[in-house]
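step: validate -> pass
step: tokenize input -> pass
step: predict -> running
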Amino acid sequence: MSQMGFHDLIQNFDALGWIVFVTLCIMSVSSIYFVVANFLRNGMIRARMEKVIHTFWDTPSAQDAVRFLEDQPKGEPFSKIALDCASAAAHHQRNEGSRLVEALNRSEFIDRALRQAVARESLRLEGGMTVLATVGSSAPFVGLLGTVWGIYHALIKIAASGNASMEAVAGPVGEALIMTAFGLFVAIPAVLAYNFFVRQNRIIYARFDEFAHDLHDFFATGSRVEAGVAPVAVRK
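step: predict -> pass
step: emit ->
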């Protein structure tokens, strides 16, 4: 009994046991990677979003505001949404009198660009979430598969030896149950992280929509509609 444990379990792995063990290890590493990556990415976005939004609206010159947005890091989404909107507005203005203007008015053209930009940046926020959800939902069952297979082999060995005492049964069965514990150890952090990032992403999505509506009002009409007040002209 003193030799029973995780080390002894690994030594007695067959092909399926190794597959289950390696799968759980890969799941664990993938989960840790995406937890760290999403935490850093969301932290950067939340730390910068208010500064980006307020600086954009507080900058007197539209050209200076665009330059400020262009200087933002590659992974900063609010600046990319605003730049796409400004580019769409400028493109529509340059093509006045063409078939483009006849097919779509300025508001519709800007709205389409904003929808595409918000959808693109929202999709980027989903990076790694599928992996976390998959690990959280499937890791316990992968560990359970290893446990069932380990118990099966343990019972076969016990039957072959003819020794059915508690000491002979408890060790091998206990070793097999370690795989279920390993699966839960992998799954629980993934589930907690998934729920945490879903909540954070929901807040960022709401800010995307709010910022996009303000951008649409500004580039389509020349003024930003403040909540609860009359439209106020924004200096260009």
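step: describe -> The chain has eight helices and two strands.
step: cleanup -> pass
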